[in-house]
Amino acid sequence: MTERERTMFSENNRISGRQMYRLMTYDLLGIGTLLVPQMLAKAAGRDGILSIGIGMAAALMYLWILRRIAPPAQESYPEYMKRQLGRIGGGIVQAGYLIYLVLLAGYVAYLFADVILRDLLRGESFYLILSVIMLLVLYGLAGGIEGRARAYEMLFWFLLIPLFLMLFAAADEVCTDYWAPLGMSSLKGVAGGAYGVFLNLSFAFLLLFSGTYVRRQETLFAAGKRAILFVGCLHAVLYLVLEGIFGVPALAGMDYPAVTLMSTVKISGGFLKRTDAFMFGVWFFTLYALLNSCVFYGSSIAEKLWKPILKMPKGKKYMWIFYGSVAVAASAAAICFYRSRAVFDWYERFLWYVGTPFLVLAPVFTAQKKWGRRMLALAVICAAALLVMTGCAPAELEDRDFPIDIAVRDMKDAGLTWYEAEQEGNRMVDYSHLKVLILEQEFVEDEAAVQEWLTFLKEKSEVPRNAYVVVTEDAEALLAQSETLGEAVGDYLEEQFENVSQIKKQAYPTIGSLYQEMDNRQETLFLPYVTVEEEKPAVEQYYVWKRGTPAGMVAGEAARLAFFTQNRMMEYVLPLEEGMLLLSDASNEIAFTKKDGVRKVVVTIHCSGSVQGTGGKENEGKLALSAEDYMNRMAANVRQEKQVDLTGSYRKLGGAARGWYEEYQERGENYEEEVEVVYRVKINWIHLS
User: Fold this and answer.
1) Residues 470 and 588 in one domain
2) Which of 276, 335, 646, 681 could join 562 in a cystine, given CB atoms 3.0 to 4.6 angstroms apart?
């Protein structure tokens, strides 16, 4: 057996470098993926990606400093603090670490329970969930650091691969236009975002307490470096995906955007509907890992502090006293966060202004034997000053109803009465499997009512964000088609949207799309207008939702042109005098020009083309011009009659026409009136018959 194998499997209270890397990755990953994206969106906006880079660099510098002031090999950090600062000074710093770890454990436990209550076990008792979490933490401590390391080593890729798959699936829905323009945030905002990223990555300080568990310090800090780089890069990818799907304004208003992302992603084939539930395994284990680490290291510090004072005998069994005490203290902190928003806000200020500076400076004070004590006293005084200034049981499955489609006719349907409606026999309505929201046209045209309804749904967060939204004249008549179809209208429409139509599913708005536009005000959405044709639901028109406001109806042909030119439709058919022109595989280039006071949006469409029923190769140029003329006439008519731009060019202003972007931020309602849309068609001919 090799030395590495003996390290991995023997009971010697040692772990390998790879195991330490995976432990540290788990510690950094969970809370960061939940909280960092929203924080970056608020602080730095589109420049959040720059903040991530700066935060990573600062964390690596912090790790470099820790490596040079770390205690000698095999000397525990609490003992090192006592030797450097004396009994009193070392005790103060240890107490500071203990308080930090207890509060952090309480914060993580609160987030853990809150995520479960929001999205998995709605209506369950917070205290029951918290108790189960803490019992699981204590159970995980039974195997010591070796047991934890082995478990996380086995689960590492098993848990991360689903996360990568979800990000890959979500990448198909990313709109890169949301990434621009860059350079709009202030230096203070970018710095604030970088500090938030560093705050998350500063949990690498736990390496100081891990020196006795590895053979060489070089191995320890190499593992920390790998963990910071891996997690930092994952933060960057996640932020770009979230920003590209939701937009910065909407992202800034979300509590847990990564969880929301997983509820938004749709996987083709219908085999996995609740992707958010599937992904909870990732956050469960990452939050559990950090909580476990906080209790483990906090208990180690408590033992060094209190065993000499209490004159407790040596023995591993006495550690359970400290495990239990730290777990109880963390639970008390979590309950305080749950019961009082003021306490929760106080802790976040504490973490921001006191906790993180303490993590950075405490090791420096400890390493400087000569002046460390004086600086420590000054730091304690400053920290105290800053701290003062910062001043029902769930129903069983058989007692639940799972609606597939819901009709909203007016504000009565849109309000609490509809949302919390219960069926006969006290049955709970569970909306997690909702597929389609059916809105009556009269309701959609009441902008104030729709905004109120969207705000209400967003706050409740029980309706899945990936439920499709359609418009109809008579919702009751549409729902009545379920008997004729032999299935729910929601199931039928979902099948049409995802598997039958040539239109890509990303073109069909969801309730999440409406949420986003309520904040972003950048997109033109085409809501399918459903009628009944030959006793089946059919979509021949679309109701336009332009930058968060209703804009009226357009013909299906106009909407399909918009879908095709925005790469949301696989094929597009143009009628000819003799036959038809079939276009496919479209991509577009948009240029913004201004000449003689006229602003033009020139859209060059590159696509493949084939003809059925007419001409020969000599007609290529004529057919391309015919396609251009057809598209330009349709785009001009829709723009003049409905003030709707089929190209979706408004969302591209930030990256391609910054001056226009800044101007129309204040008067976006004038954009369609003041620009002219011109299509140019470049066809790669595949076949002419």
Assistant:
1) no
2) 646
pLDDT tens readout for residues 593-627: 888 788 899 999 888 888 876 555 557 778 888 88
- State whether 212 and 307 are in the same domain: yes
Torsion sign, CA atoms 102, 104, 105, 106: positive
- Tell me 498's DSSP state: I
> Is 6 part of any domain?
no
In a shared domain, residues 384 and 265 = yes
pLDDT given for residue 307 in this prediction: 67
- Looking at the structure, tell me whether residues 599 and 551 fall in a common domain: no
| Predicted confidence (pLDDT) at residue 663 exceeds the cutoff of 60 | yes
**pTM value surpassing 0.85:** no
Statement to judge: residues 207 and 84 lie in one domain: yes
The residue to which tokens 């593992």 are assigned = 223
Residue 103 inside a domain? The answer is yes
36 and 108 in a single domain? The answer is yes
For 672-684, the pLDDT digits (tens) are 888 888 899 888 8
Are residue 464 and residue 600 in the same domain, yes or no? Answer: no
In whole angstroms, give the CA distance from residue 595 to residue 597. 5
Tally of domains in the chain: 3
**pLDDT for residue 511:** 85
What is the extent of the structural domain holding 134?
A: 16-389
Contacts within 8 Å (CB) and 24+ apart, 64-72:
65/363, 65/364, 66/204, 66/205, 66/207, 66/208, 66/221, 66/224, 66/363, 67/217, 67/221, 69/363, 69/364, 69/366, 69/367, 70/207, 70/208, 70/211, 70/217, 70/221, 70/363, 71/208, 71/211
Residues 522 and 612 in one domain: no
Please check whether residue 3 lies inside any domain of the structure. Answer: no
pLDDT band for position 526 (50/70/90)? very high
Backbone dihedral angles phi then psi of residue 315, each to the nearest 5 degrees = 150, 135
- Give the C-alpha separation, 612 to 338, whole Å: 66
Query: Measured at the alpha carbon of residue 609, what is the angle toward residues 606 and 615, in degrees to the nearest 5?
Result: 135
According to DSSP, residue 176 is labeled G
Query: Does residue 526 lie in a domain region?
Result: yes
